Amino acid sequence: MQYLWRTPGSRTAPEEASPIGTPPLEIRGLTVAYHRRPVLWNVDYAAPSGGLIAVVGPNGAGKSTLIKACLGLVPSVSGTVEVFGRPIAKQRRLIGYVPQRESVDWDFPVSALDVVAMGRYGKIGWFRPVTRAHKEAALHALERVGMADFARRQIGQLSGGQQQRVFLARALAQEAQLYFMDEPFAGVDAATERAVLQVLRDLDAAGRTVICVHHDLQTVSDYFDHALLLNTRVVAQGPVARVMTPDLLSRTYGGRPMPAPAALGALGAEAS
Amino acid sequence: MMPDVQEFLQIDAPALLAAVLACAACALVGNFLVLRRQGMMGDAVSHAILPGIVGGFLVAGTRETLPMMLGALAAAALAGLLIEVVRRLGRLESGAAMGVVFTVMFAAGVVMIEQASAAGVDLDADCVLYGQLETILWLAPKGWASLANPAVWAALPREVLTLAAVFALCVALVGLFYKELKITTFDPALASTLGIPAGLFHYGVVLLVAATAIAAFEAVGSILVIAMLIAPPAAARLLTDRLAAQILLSVALGVLAALVGYGAAAFGPMLLGVSHSLNAAGMIAVASGLILALAVLFGPRHGLLGRRRAVGRLRAAPGFVAPEAQKP
């Protein structure tokens, strides 16, 4: 019995549920408010099929909220979200999620392997234990992020970067078609940054769609194919070459003239 | 001096059984409160059920378990709801919201008791707080041989049977939903995206805590309930880094506290030559506190001494240069 509230007979295989031509994610008129203050305002977005998409914008622009609203984790005031042409509640098995690292208690008494195995729970369903096959799938996912040696380690004893890789492995274990990742590059070491990037590229090569909240403007063009510039409303969307321009970025970041991404590197070096 | 068998079976055995079952059940469900950082919910629920118990008692007019249980469950559900309402509308952190709701509901319960006792009804707030472990009697057994008779077991006191049923329920639910409890406790957001109703599990845990507290409070009192919901799981957490091991250990430590505490209360005064008897529920709570203190000191990885030893090993390792020696 799956966690979908349907009978097993009506279950459709993931491949059948993603007909050619339907965008992996289609958002129409999405508005979200916290305490009556709008955080997202009338967002329309259709994600291209396959590819790595960065969600870019200043602090408080609603980037994380956009992901959470798409996943149904925060209530929306209006608007619809469809995944491969159907409401998300019917497409849970096609979705993978990497929350922000700070969102969980790393003191929790579980091993890295236990956490990654949680990515399989959607496939296991009610009343069934985590079988050896699922544990092997979880271990394989840990291998892909270079963390197999830490499988038995309690998660609190891992470094921040290693914890981030465990979260990434858990998403891999979900074997999804569409991934939502909330700042997977935030505060990680160089080794983890390379590991995360490698996983993203592998997913891209396998035809998956990955939507990442991303903070570092310098790397957007290097790491991602598409970008969604967000500041409560959608400012621009499209291939990075077209939207990562000084003009559009300054409009996203609140009117101040912004240097081109290429010049940002020099600025960052000066500042540090 | 050896107390005779019949006295032990009739007085000590049922009280001990009730204490052991209450502690085991509380420790089992307490794990999920401690891991959800909602230890305060134990206080909240065990106090907030009082008006429900009194209400159930007043409506049914008897001290039967069922009406009081239903009243208490309704009160627990109401408390859970009120806490959410106060938290959202008052924009308070959940600890403050719980503090407000459970004190008000407990006060309402005390007022109801006062009003009821004015009307000549036998209920008092003390037995809610401290329980009546000493009054649980099992008159059926006459000696070891009589235990072979099923009729003797059928005559077990109602409190013991209720506690056994609730403990069995806790074991069954935790066993059936182990995986889901684990993920909704660790990462409720991911659980929701997988289609596991995390909110429902939150209320489920609260209701299970309530059911356990109700079954246990009559025998051991709400103070022991609160101690047992928190102390054994907290101690077990310091002894292991595995969830399943923590749960099993916490139940074992709860049982240990019950045995040690009851033993100290029942036989301590005799051994010390003190004529005053000790309150068994109180001694069990003290024992659970001592167990937690020992775990804090001697826990293998998280204990204070263990941590010291780890630092010592690091300093003794070849190639280690103390930070103070590195300063120019």
From TrEMBL, chain A:
Top-rank taxon: Bacteria
Region feature Disordered, mapped onto this chain: 1-20
UniProt keyword terms in alphabetical order: ATP-binding, Ion transport, Nucleotide-binding, Transport, Zinc, Zinc transport
A biological process term (GO) from this entry: zinc ion transport
Keyword Secreted: no
Entry annotated with the keyword ATP-binding: yes
GO molecular function, one term: ATP binding
Family affiliation: Belongs to the ABC transporter superfamily.
This protein's name: Manganese/zinc/iron transport system ATP-binding protein
Organism: Azospirillum brasilense
From TrEMBL, chain B:
Subcellular location: Cell membrane
Keywords: Cell membrane, Membrane, Transmembrane, Transmembrane helix, Transport
SUPFAM superfamilies associated with the record: ABC transporter involved in vitamin B12 uptake, BtuC
GO annotation terms (biological process): response to zinc ion; transmembrane transport
Transmembrane intervals: 15-34, 41-60, 66-83, 95-113, 160-178, 190-214, 220-240, 247-272, 278-299
Membrane-topology annotation of the record: Multi-pass membrane protein
Coiled coil residues, start to end: none
Keyword Transmembrane included in the entry's annotation: yes
InterPro entries: ABC_BtuC-like (IPR037294), ABC_TroCD (IPR001626)
Presence of keyword rRNA processing: no
An annotated GO cellular component: ATP-binding cassette (ABC) transporter complex
PANTHER family xrefs: ABC-TRANSPORTER METAL-BINDING PROTEIN (PTHR30477), METAL TRANSPORT SYSTEM MEMBRANE PROTEIN CT_070-RELATED (PTHR30477:SF8)
Similarity comment: family membership: Belongs to the ABC-3 integral membrane protein family.
Protein's name in the database: Manganese/zinc/iron transport system permease protein
Organism: Azospirillum brasilense
